[in-house]
Design goal:
With 269 residues, the protein is mainly α. It has 2 domains: 74 residues; 191 residues, no CATH class. It is 91% helix and 0% strand. The N and C termini lie far apart (141 Å).
Length: 269
Amino acid sequence: MKNIFALIALLGLFLAGTYTVYAQDTADTLATEEVVDTAVAVEEAPAEVEEVATEEVVEESASFHQIIKQKFIEGGPGFMGIVLLCLILGLALAIERIIYLNMATTDTDKLLNDVESALNNGGVDAAKEVCRNTNGPVASIFYQGLERSNEGVEMVEKSIVSYGSVQMGLLEKGLSWISLFIALAPMLGFMGTVIGMIGAFDAIEAAGDISPSLVAGGIKVALLTTVFGLIVAMILQIFYNYLIAKVDSIVNSMEDASISLIDLLVKNK
């Protein structure tokens, strides 16, 4: 009898231990699944956040262009179109001048060395050939100076000064039109504002009452032309100042190179 009770007790202990191990395994499995689910959720969350952020960026980008388009239309096609035309023409002239001035930039030190080497080896004709094969106003001035080299240094100086003025005129060509568009764009904007204000007061007079929405809408539309005119003027002013600085740099190089050419001719006389 005692053996039966002992066997039953041992069987109960075994079943209890088995249940405890199974419970622990089940708990560990559930914990592992929760960790995996949490990791998956954490991995999926940034992707969802990135997708939402991307959609928000796209919406903001699209809305920005839509706002610019809407404000442009609200400003009125008449004056806003003229202001836009000023921007297009001004940018076209600025880009053309930038290309021309970059092509007109010459390495004066290298040109002087080539001219000096040509004078020492082949004379004036060889130096003129070097200038003829080199682009830029500095080479053109050198060529004109070498053309008068047989008439004396004074004639070379006069030729350089005269042809230098011609080259300066070519460098500054078109800049006056850019300055015109810089002044014209905000003036057109102010004119559109004044005309818009007149239209707003006419609407108030026709309505016989001052409506805040009517006044605010008319003033907002009127001020849009001024804003776009000022923006156009600022953009063109940046290009204009860059072009002026570029012209001044080329002119200084021309003057320094001309003095060096005269010294070189006096040396090789």
